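ok trying again, last paste got cut off:
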Amino acid sequence: MNNLDNKLFNAMYDVLATKSKKSDICREYNVTRSALDWNLKSVLRETDEKKALRHQMLLGAKLGDGYFQEIHHNTYKYRESHSINELEYAKWKYFILQSYHKNTKIVPKNGGTACEVYTSASCSQQIKPYSQQKQELHS
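nice, full thing came through this time. structure:
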């Protein structure tokens, strides 16, 4: 994803996050359908590199921006809030989690001044080990 231009990055997000037609999104962002489809396939393909990146992201979340929530007995979600100024960063995290499970969302918060990335309960078993991991501080 490092080489994507901003138009294509946002077009890909809109395809995954909205119910809009790909053809309409391609027109809106002035990107070709083939570029959009190829990059979507690439972003959603599960690879060892993406697994390692997601693992590091979720480990870092224990100490940083994210939190893990048990919503019911043995059902877990991951949530992370950001200023609306960090929306591109939130979208990047969305893509990392989206290849993991297709029910990741970004929703507005605080009257549109913030956004939240979260996973659905459908990836609870993958989130559970991170939720139950203890934070250990070393001095």
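cool. Helices lie at 6-17, 22-29, 33-44, 48-63, 87-98, 124-132. The chain has two domains: 6-44, 48-132.
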